[in-house]
Amino acid sequence: MLIRNMSKIISELLGEAKADYAAKILKMENIIGKDSLDIRLGADIIGKINIKIRALGLNSTDSSGPEIYFSLMSTVRMHDDFLMRHLGENSNTDTSTLLSKIVILVKKIRMPRNVWVIKHSAAKKLLKNQPPKHLMKLLGYRSLESLLKRESMGLVFAGIQFAESAAWHKKFKQSYSLLQPSDFESRKIDISYAGNARWQKATAEFVKSTRNNIISSKEMGSIVVLPLPATKLRGLTIYTLTLLIQTVTELRTFSSFIKLRQVQPNFGDIVKSAVLSDELGGLSNGGSELHWRIIQRHFGAISNLAHPDVFEPHLQPEDLQWRKAENILINIEPALQFWENMDYVGLIKDGQTVSFNILDAATNYINDRTYGNQVYGHMQASLRNELYSQYYSHPILESRMLLSLENEMSGDNNNFYRLVTA
């Protein structure tokens, strides 16, 4: 009974039907010899929950869902205060000052930030073929030349995301099919704060309607933080810092996916598909897709000496490096160690899911979400990644993963594990 409950914990946290989840696990365990890795992961989650509930000053056996949730919110508030103090600010500081200082801090953090992305010269050609007229009007520019002279390419590609129509974007992305590897280069991710009056006016409606003030461009390797209409906003520091660090990781995931495929004849189509989709191609195991993120995570954690030949010469070990956002934040503020390796941990009480993922917790806090209306999507995504990562660490599945990558690079996808495009 205990073993079945361990497996049930993960399927419920993922929100997957028990039968579908069991079938997926069975396929992998039939290959590796039924190691019951999901049961071990379930036990790991329970152990971590018990430790953290006690760290919150609660009883791990009889605390209610609301008690645990609001204790997590209190912890977020405390850690947000610590991070503001690190910036030399406090709860009276206006959002514009905080956002500006957060961007400066992220730029100084030691973490992998090189990406392989479209050259500025190639991006300029794309824009000349299809000028972003609505963005130019919003920012008060009469010509594309003036726009490109006064605004960075990262800002321009952020601006087109909210300024141009769906029809414009569809046509613009089609031009990506013509891109060649020679149109790409390696450079550091550009992070900026668009806080001047021109951008404040242009983005006010977008930020208000979408409740989103961070825009990233995967193909340009840029992240832009937009000003907020509110002068005060609780939880802004911990939320923005965590999201920016995670976004850096996501841009590097896109970069490694594209960089590996630069030798393929349909390279431009691969770029277009990857930009248009939130997902990247991954391994398919009888219908269960393995995202490229998990492949990068797996090989980014191993020794450089074990770097597989299939990645050579285009992907180097440093291209696959990744770090969890909370682990980077701990170097800034040691008190945040509470969240260390908790990204995939959650519990279900009376049908309600409570996430111990720092970004879920910060999102719930900044939006003042009441118990019963909390979000937990980041925990689910991390748990899915952790589950597959543990199974594909097994030598048999790892070897099949490498074989599939080799076949894709050679143009042969007719094996049991095939690469799919999301």
Structure description:
The structure is a single chain. This protein is mainly α. Helix content is 56%, strand content 10%. A hairpin with a 2-residue loop joins strand 8 and strand 9. The radius of gyration is 23 Å and the shape is globular. The C terminus is likely disordered.
Instruction: Write down the overall geometry.
Output: globular
- Helix and strand string, N-terminal first? HHHHHEHHHHHEEHEEHHEEHHHEEHHHE
The spatial strand order of the largest sheet comes to: 3-5-4
Instruction: State the end-to-end CA separation.
Output: 37 Å
Number of helices: 19
Report the mean per-residue pLDDT as an integer: 89
Unreliable stretches (pLDDT < 50, length at least 5) are 413-422
For this entry, what is the oligomeric state of its chains? Answer: single chain
β-strand amount: 5-15%
Number of strands: 10
Query: Major sheet, described briefly?
Result: 3 strands, mixed
Structure class: mainly alpha
CA-atom Rg in angstroms: 23 Å
Key features of this structure:
mainly alpha; three-stranded antiparallel β-sheet; 19 helices; disordered C terminus; three-stranded mixed β-sheet; 10 strands; 422 residues; 10% strand
